[in-house]
Amino acid sequence: MKKWLRKIGLAAVALILFYFVAGWKMPAVWRMETLKLPKGCKTVYHTKIRITDVYWLHIDGEKVIKCDMGYEAAKAYIEENNSAKQLEHINISWYGGMSSDPIYDAEYDESFWQQEDREDYVKISYFKKL
Known about the structure:
The protein is α+β, with helices and mostly antiparallel strands. Helices cover 35% and strands 26% of the residues.
């Protein structure tokens, strides 16, 4: 009986440690990676998720994609083809726009500003207060 309780205790500790090390990322990554995107979109910068306490404690994530149809059409497509639940905590913006606390910052991305098709870059952000 003691061995069984010890195994359950160790499993509980392992699950708690996993959650605090990486488990909190899973819902945010899942939400961003399962969005229905327009065909032909390419990932420019892969999904990054972090916990930050700027302003208040929150989970912050970003991903940058490039869609040949342009930012406005890509945003409209994503908003029309995903449910309100899928878009919860998600913001879609132009990559070159201003942001108060960016993970991927176009202002310092020299290769972005050298591109002729800058209007095709879309930033998908995840933001959830804890």
